[in-house]
## 1
Amino acid sequence: MIVLAAGSYGLKVLGVTALGAVVERRLGPLVSLLPAVLFSALIVVMTFETAGELVLDARVVGVGVGALAVWRKAPLLVVIVGSMSVTAALRLIT
């Protein structure tokens, strides 16, 4: 994840220099995907990792419910409330 962040920052610096036009033509489509990749990596790390260990708890189920709701094209509010509710219910039970 650090490599992706450094690469993203490096590409922004290159955009200011004379090499910006060359980089934009060749790497434009790739650079446009970097924010989505970084955000996805952050979600995965926050869901499956605690104190450097793999953890499978209520967060995993909540993210799964959210992913299912997004796949079914539910409104954003339904996705958030559904994920939150399932995670809270599982934490209450366990």
Note: The mean pLDDT is 85.
## 2
Amino acid sequence: MNKKLHGRYDGLKYGWLKDARRFVLLLAAIYLALQLVIGFSFVNGNSMEPTLHSGELVMYVRAGQTYDRGDIVSVRTPSGEYYVKRIIALEGDTIDLKDGEVYLNGELLAEPYIKGRTLEQPGTVRYPLRLQKGQIFVMGDNREASMDSRSFGVVGRGQIKGKLWPDRE
């Protein structure tokens, strides 16, 4: 009888150890997923209105992304801050601002998602601007309230942390 009781005790002792190991593995998997695959960001301010609103939590995908014009991305600016912005132009594109409108490769860019006029901002950007290899030009949808590539310049692919998921138009 003593042997049966002792055997049952050993099973309980090792059962919690197996559960703890599973829990630690689950935590490690979640941590790796957050570091390598997905990320979260809060929209700070009204620069992406009407598409996104201040305080909104968005999820972005980090891994294996290709970026296109119109994609909304989380980007790290040269100052080290993180912003949520829309890709307007990619490497090889020429962007120009005239009369509150955006011209991409010489043609007026159709932007049904924007709010306000797109005016030049104080900074080092001179138009027309031709983007070099690896450069991306980003802007907020609320053009009159957005700090974006018009003021801090182009960003590199390495500064993009990920593309918002699900896609928002």
Note: The chain has two domains: 1-36, 38-165.
## 3
Amino acid sequence: MLDWDAITPEELRELNKKMSDARIAEMYNVSVGKVKYKRKKMGISLMGRIWEDLRAQNGETMLPFNAFAKRMLLENPDVDMLAKAITQYAFRSGVVENMHGEGKLSDADMKELNVFFANRMAGILVKAFAGEWMQIWMLFDFYKTLAADWDAAVPDVREFELEFERRLGAFERR
């Protein structure tokens, strides 16, 4: 049997990262109130755990946030705005914008490229939201042969992480 009175702050901090107060209480056969009291006495903040979970994007805390975001993206999707946001993120904000700024692409060229890319993204999204996976697979199966000799894609998730941290930090400061 685990000894609740002998638990160290480090042990409780580690448990606090992995499970709820109710689970800890059950594990040590004590009340939830005792867990909350000891956590508070040892300076182990529940909000601290929540922020750590959110930053690490894991744990029980993150589940409802991920479910909410998934619902927001998948239920009644705004294909127009999703396509434009993806275009801005994946195409416009970066090398293409630098080329435009250096005068290598005119404003008319930039507009034509943005419209083309956004329309293509909207097409993929419409097919995905309609569940027409066979058509998407066939299209990608064709195009992958045209891109077979390209360098391997390296997933760039820096901006996802930076924006997440920026918004989390703003939320935390409230």
Note: The radius of gyration is 24 Å.
